[in-house]
Amino acid sequence: MGFCYDKWVQVGKIGEERLLRLIQRVVRGRGHLLVGIGDDGLVLKDGRTVLTTDAYAQGVHFDLSYLSYYDVGRRCACAALSDLVAMGAEPVVMLVALALPRRTSTRAVQELYQGLEQVCAELNCEIGGGDIIAFDQLVLGLSALGKTRRPLLRSGAEPGDLVYVTGYTGLAETGRLLLVHKLSIRFKACGGELAIERHRHPLPRLQVLQRVRRGISALIDTSDGLGSDVRHLSQLSGVRVVIQAEKIPVHPVTRELCQVLDIDINKFVLSSGEDYELLFTSKRRLGSTVAGVPVNCIGWVEKGAGVEIENQGRRSKLRIRGYDHLK
């Protein structure tokens, strides 16, 4: 089939993006899909039905040493349904494939589903069933279906568009680090509780989408990190994106934490993932808040390729990437 990889190459050596290109060479379209592999979800030929699926594993996507089962349910549901919102769709139904150790208590399972149900209730979505198997650790596979009048893709950015992001970049990872390092009390006064809540409960920005969707040309959620996700928009739209470093919204608690832990804040905000904020392009000039959520213009789109970052008037190629599961 003409693969450029030897069959014995380890996936950890090529990374998620190149492995995805290999998979795309294997699968064949049969006329059922309007949008297939490569976006936040697929779109059926009707142009209105969006489907997505994600897997979440203990020790990779969540840690039960500082999160409750209820937190895990909320967090995973938010992440799964965010992919629908990132396609311009409103969630309708979610399926849950649950793998769990036999020693897991029924109370833990109940709390997990209470967390899943809480998020579904907030987004007017239903849990429609799923599957349960025994496994040596907790793993959730969440599939979700949504409906849209018109799907919003990663590939629609055009020269002249502005680049926007909702919320605060790196806030969810800030919350995770506060929990890991047991610093929540110390940072309470400067926004620690907000950061922890964004890690535990990163509710998709559906209300923002509903207000601004008519002007959106390209859309993605910030699940992998701003550096990676803006690169996806650039590649699939065939344009150059310029990000202004000083315009990236950073919460004071993130600045304070990076100083205390001696973390490079520029690298942190560009590489930290799982914020599940909306990153989109539009020709419209928006206000600083939409539906009570901060919305910041952080750059623009122009002819060319790649991503550049402008810092104090100087531009350079953006080389910082976000999270890659295989590396």
Automatic annotation (TrEMBL):
Mg(2+) 4 binds at D40, T52, D83. The gene is thiL. This is Thiamine-monophosphate kinase. The keyword Magnesium applies. It holds the Pfam family AIRS. It is an enzyme of class 2 (transferase). ATP binds at Y113, G130, D131, R154, S223. GO terms for molecular function: ATP binding; magnesium ion binding; thiamine-phosphate kinase activity. It catalyses: thiamine phosphate + ATP = thiamine diphosphate + ADP. It comes from candidate division WOR-3 bacterium. Its EC number is 2.7.4.16. HAMAP family: TMP_kinase (MF_02128). Gene3D superfamilies: PurM-like C-terminal domain, PurM-like, N-terminal domain.
